[in-house]
Amino acid sequence: MTKILFICHGNICRSPMAEFVMKDLVRRAGLSERFEISSAATSTEEIGNPVYPPVRKLLTEHGISCAGKTARQLTNADYDRFDLLIGMDQENLRNMYRICGGDYADKMHLLAEYAGRRGDIPDPWYTRDFHATWQAVENGCKGLMERLRNKTDGDEQAKNLYRH
Length: 164
Prior knowledge:
By secondary structure, the chain is of the alpha/beta class. The chain has helices at about 15-30, 55-60, 75-80, 90-100, 125, 130-150, 155-160, and strands spanning about 1-10, 35-40, 85, 110.
């Protein structure tokens, strides 16, 4: 099972958006049982709060539910539990290193890397452009899905699982 944790500042906008977009991609590929996907915050200020309403609205418009999701904070134990910890921006990455005590197994990355670009996923809390963030998150998640497929190319059973 591949375990992925998406991380942003408050866990109410970008990281839950990535969590549920990725869950939807995995579900549509028929691979839900092969993945554990979640999200977390680097800060404590939104802990327990639901997904931010404009993000919930976008997810709903794409037929994706985020019901029951509430913000939680990244912990040091998450580093051992998850295979990939994917931050939305450089500040998140710095905080991820601080919380987890480094990245000795090369598990921490930025989502934009999977879309083949450098930089950050824009924070719609500040930009107010939720559609631009959606596009960046979707591109990153699709790139991540493709990377996971390529990683398993040597394994015939895994190749069959990733065909759709």
